[in-house]
Design brief:
The chain is globular and about 105 Å long. The chain has seven helices and eleven strands. By secondary structure, the chain is α+β, with helices and mostly antiparallel strands. Helix 3 (115-129) runs antiparallel to helix 6. The protein binds 2-acetamido-2-deoxy-beta-D-glucopyranose. Keywords: Membrane, Transmembrane, Transmembrane helix. The chain crosses the membrane at residues 12-31.
């Protein structure tokens, strides 16, 4: 016994202490790293992936015209599978919508784009397309630019509702809009579908993501059709519907140059309005008494709700 033993004991205690200290430091560092890694994807990663989902979807939609050709030159269908030629008629050389009663009325929830943004877009669309399609085109009313979110009832799966049930739906929708933040968005690209619908496809910069908005609407409207019409991440608004060939087709029966005309017009429009920024701060609960009333200036009843969350 004696000093030697005490010295050894002391030395090994220091070794053990140092060992545990190093362990603690390593543990603390990896714990912090794990915390940071687990925070990052849940905060910005999911909205990044919604943005990626939208980009992939828009890229796919942009290929539709090349893959399927200009179907609207024969007989196109809309994105809601209604034939375009059934929706319009030419009266004294003027395109007029054919309004068909929706029974029961369609109940749509849409985000509204204010005229502050829609009027300049509408002007650009008209300026570029009118010279090529003076008659065979229908322009979306700029007071009614909208992004379809979620249907409480649609023409494919009608969900009849009493006046009281409709009031209850509207109140449920109003309640959730109070927790939705205004969306700051940017026009990602303009697309012409094979059915002749000219669409603006938007990306979200900040605010509540459309995926979240649709999920909230779904929860608030449990009787709604399970088959909804649009992809959950999609944020689109239709600008115009082409109803026939352009005034001057370059070559009879030349498919390629026919499509090139459309690509050229879409490119021109993209060069002018792509990147445009807008803020969306209203959600509308719309009873459409005619099919596609929002698109065709049909009969409808609109309830307008301000998005209530201010931090966006
Ligand atoms: C566009 O919509 C507004 C608001 O509903 C309406 O007052 C106006 O008449 C519409 N324009 C056309 C051309 O139908």
């Amino acid at each position: 016994m004696g000093r030697g033993v005490v010295k050894n004991w002391w030395a090994s205690s220091v070794k053990i202490a140092v060992f545990w200290l190093i362990c603690a430091v390593i543990f603390y560092c990896s714990f912090q790293m794990a915390l940071r890694n687990s925070n990052r994807p849940t905060i910005s990663g999911s909205s990044n992936s919604y943005a990626e989902q939208r980009s992939a979807l828009y890229a796919k939609m942009a290929k539709d015209l090349d893959e399927n050709g200009a179907v609207f030159l024969k007989q196109g269908e809309t994105s809601q599978s209604l034939s375009l030629s059934d929706l319009f008629t030419l009266k004294d050389g003027i395109v007029t919508p054919v309004l068909k009663a929706a029974n029961p009325p369609v109940r749509a929830n849409v985000l509204h784009l204010s005229t502050e943004y829609s009027v300049p877009i509408s002007e650009a669309v008209k300026k570029i397309l009118l010279p090529s399609f003076d008659k065979a085109i229908w322009f979306q009313n700029s007071s009614m630019y909208h992004f379809s979110m979620f249907h409480a009832s649609h023409h494919k799966t009608p969900v009849p509702a009493t006046e009281a049930e409709i009031e209850a739906e509207a109140s449920a929708v109003k309640a959730i809009t109070e927790a939705i933040c205004p969306l700051h968005i940017v026009l990602d690209r303009v697309i012409l579908t094979s059915t002749g619908v000219l669409l603006g496809c938007w990306q979200v910069v900040s605010g509540t993501d459309p995926v979240t908005i649709r999920a909230k609407l779904k929860a608030a409207l449990p009787r709604a059709p399970t088959n909804q019409l649009y992809n959950e991440a999609m944020l689109h608004t239709s600008f115009a519907r082409l109803l026939g060939p352009p005034n001057k087709l370059p070559e009879e029966g030349n498919q390629i140059s026919g499509l090139e005309i459309f690509h050229e017009l879409v490119n021109k429009l993209n060069n002018q309005i792509r990147g445009l920024k807008a803020t969306v701060s209203e959600l509308w609960y719309v009873e459409e008494y005619d099919l596609l009333a929002l698109a065709l200036n049909g009969n409808m009843k609109i309830r307008k709700f301000q998005l209530g969350c201010s931090k966006a």
